[in-house]
Amino acid sequence: MKIAITTWGNRVSPVFDAAQTLLIADIENHGIHSKRYESFKPDDIISLAGLLTRENVEVLVCGAISETYSARLAENRIRIFAFVTGNAMDILNCLAAHNIIKPAFMMPGCTLPSNTPLT
Q: Which of 13, 31, 52, 70 is the most exposed place for a label (fewest CB within 10 A)?
């Protein structure tokens, strides 16, 4: 499965609209098989959706994201895990090992339905 994480330095970008870099990783058999960074323009959601589709990204992990952008990505069958915070590699390792985002990686006051698996 391919996952993209919006990053700011080595952390998940707290706001999608401010991110300019994606960490794109391929996870298989509880391991990270490849990863790379890709620049993008957050205000060009059509190009971003195209990039994610071309790269076969199934899941986008990000911080806060507007409903408009979230809806556009969902239209392109990109599953979004928003309001995530922390070190991007720690989150990627957690996803590879456990196939979930642990509650410790959620922004204060935000939650995912308990143990929501990526697939």
A: 31
Domain that holds residue 69: 2-105
Residue 52 lies in a domain: yes
Domain assignment present for 113: no
pTM for this predicted structure? 0.90
Beta strands in the chain (DSSP E): 2-8, 11-12, 21-28, 31-39, 57-61, 79-81
Question: For residue 104, what are its two tokens?
Answer: 């410790």
- What are the b/e assignments for 65-78, b being 16+ CB within 10 Å? beeebbeebeeeeb
The string of pLDDT tens digits covering residues 19-31 is 999 999 999 998 9
Residue pair 78/49 in contact (Cβ under 8 Å)? The answer is: yes
